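Quick note —
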Amino acid sequence: MKRNLLILSIASFTIISSTHAQINKGATLIGGNVGGGTSNTETPGIADMKQRSLSAGLRFGKAVKENLIVGGMAYYTGNKWENILTSPSSAKQRNYSVGVFARKYRPIGNSGFYIFGTASLSGGLLRNTDVYSPSSPDIKTKGTIVNLGVEPGISYAVNKWLQVETGLSELLTLSYQHSTTNLASGTRKANSFNGNINISGEVPLYLGLTILLN
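Predicted structure written out below.
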């Protein structure tokens, strides 16, 4: 089995309005990101399994004290899987969520580097569609999800107004999900609770810029 994986951060930006190079109390943060990834699993004698993903989000926050940002966020994530020899032959997943977050920065001496951690709590809607043969109806699932996530990162201050940052998305997640699936035989309801520590090589790594407006 051969697997090719590509995870990209297409764009990521954060604007922090502050009167100092440090992120002082009262600073304002406006940020956003767009990212995505593709993977292709090749197995001899079996059609390739292809997966594509896309995510986009916005953040707004205030520094409640030095180097600590608290605020709100809105996110969209979408995934699609395809394999013509399986049943279902393809599947689509879309999540829409809003929530709150807190990000803590900690400088590493006078090196210009900062380490940071972001914790978030969000709730949202999920929409899934499983596609079978043309003669069979699609199976659709609707639901709600509550998610708690932790993401670590590191940034470097290029100058007083520009920082470059990178981090690991979805490193630690806890989620509760309630869903309803419409089947030919009737409606199926499900509840699930999941916890995940993603230490595999498939943790999405993003690259972004932080702009400090003094």
